[in-house]
């Protein structure tokens, strides 16, 4: 809806951006910093690896609840969200961890190469929430549009499943019998 409007009337972008509450830009800045931190090589604990999927799932759940909790098809929305997440987890988890990823069992730390994928997923969730919020503010009836609600839920679920699947690939390194420093499988 918003995207089509901006294609047809690009001059509407400035008023939309001006009406965006300042806290949204603060959230975007914080999420961008989080994404940038993932773009460089780093070490992280097993618990830290869990933080990103949990935080992004919470952000998605908030997006779904704030948009569709009052919708008559909220149960279907949750099913689409969880179904898309389960499919993404199932596809990503069996894949090899990124080349160069290592797990040190003695320190319970992962050494990971940088990746821009988390930034893309973070921005995907943020934009889904932002665009969805604008769409629903401009056309409140969309909350009852099954196609719109299910597509939005599936998109959130896809992003969440990718985050969870990426973390699960790393957890596999930590919880399989191996030497103290385990290299990742070839990616």
Question: Short summary of the structure?
Answer:
This protein has 187 residues and is an alpha+beta fold. It is 66% helix and 7% strand. It contains seven helices and four strands.
Number of strands: 4
Q: How are helices and strands ordered from N to C?
A: HHHEHHEEHHE
Largest sheet: 4 strands, antiparallel
Low-confidence runs: none
Q: Write down the domain tally.
A: 1
What sort of overall outline do the alpha carbons produce when their principal axes are compared?
globular
How would you state the average pLDDT, rounded? Answer: 89
Please give the count of helices: 7
Distance between the termini: 38 Å
Record the strand order, biggest sheet.
1-3-2-4
Question: What does this molecule look like?
Answer:
- This protein has 187 residues and is of the alpha+beta class.
- The protein has one domain.
- It has seven helices and four strands, in the order αααβααββααβ.
- It has helices at 2-8, 13-18, 22-37, 46-68, 74-92, 117-138, 146-175, and strands spanning 42-45, 102-104, 109-112, 181-183.
- Strands 1-3-2-4 form a four-stranded antiparallel β-sheet.
- A hairpin with a 4-residue loop joins β2 and β3.
- α3 packs antiparallel against α6 (117-138), α4 runs parallel beside α6 (117-138) and α5 (74-92) runs parallel beside α7 (146-175).
- The longest helix has 30 residues, at 146-175.
- The radius of gyration is 19 Å and the shape is globular.
- The model has no long low-confidence stretch (mean pLDDT 89).
């Amino acid at each position: 809806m918003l995207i089509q409007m901006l294609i047809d009337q690009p001059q509407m972008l400035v008023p939309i951006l001006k009406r965006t509450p300042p806290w949204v830009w603060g959230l975007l800045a914080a999420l961008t910093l989080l994404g940038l931190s993932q773009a460089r090589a780093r070490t992280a604990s097993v618990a830290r690896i869990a933080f990103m999927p949990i935080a992004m799932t919470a952000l998605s759940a908030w997006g779904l609840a704030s948009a569709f909790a009052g919708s008559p098809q909220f149960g279907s929305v949750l099913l689409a969200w969880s179904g898309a997440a389960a499919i993404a987890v199932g596809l990503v988890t069996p894949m090899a961890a990124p080349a160069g990823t290592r797990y040190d069992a003695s320190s319970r730390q992962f050494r990971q190469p940088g990746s821009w994928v988390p930034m893309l997923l973070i921005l995907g969730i943020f934009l889904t929430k932002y665009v969805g919020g604008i769409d629903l503010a401009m056309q409140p009836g969309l909350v009852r549009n099954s196609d719109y609600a299910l597509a939005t839920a599936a998109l959130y679920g896809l992003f969440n499943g990718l985050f969870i699947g990426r973390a699960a690939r790393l957890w596999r390194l930590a919880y399989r019998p191996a030497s103290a420093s385990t290299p990742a499988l070839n990616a």
